[in-house]
Design goal:
about 110 residues, alpha+beta, HIT family, subunit A, 5-stranded antiparallel β-sheet
Length: about 110
């Protein structure tokens, strides 16, 4: 499969995996935009938020719950952090696999674009 995130899930591409369960995996971004920059992905390939089926609404909730736990473990839950899901090319999505960025560890700009 050409999807880099699916290759990480399969263990074919090395990554610093810091969390995993039956539905999601989290790892450190290789090009961090903040001192804490984690990527949270579903194990199942879903191309983007737009392709998330109505049968899978709990997946996003599970990703957010994992992010909350990771924010505590990374020490950014008290000072604050940002969760970002980009959707599609115009939304800034670079990898065609649903993923959430967790950014923290510094005061983030209020500017989103």
């Amino acid at each position: 499969m050409d999807c880099i995130f699916c290759q990480i899930v399969a263990g074919e591409v090395p990554s610093e995996i810091i969390y995993q369960d039956e539905e999601v995996i989290a790892f450190r971004d290789i090009n961090p935009q903040a001192p804490t920059h984690l990527i949270i992905i579903p194990r199942k390939h879903v191309p983007s938020l737009a392709q998330l089926s109505e049968a899978e609404p709990s997946l996003i909730g599970h990703m957010v719950a994992a992010a909350g736990q990771l924010a505590k473990e990374e020490g950014v839950s008290e000072t604050g952090y940002r969760l970002v899901i980009n959707c599609g090319e115009w939304g800034g999505q670079l990898v065609p696999h649903l993923h959430m960025h967790l950014l923290g560890g510094k005061k983030l700009s209020g500017k989103l674009g």
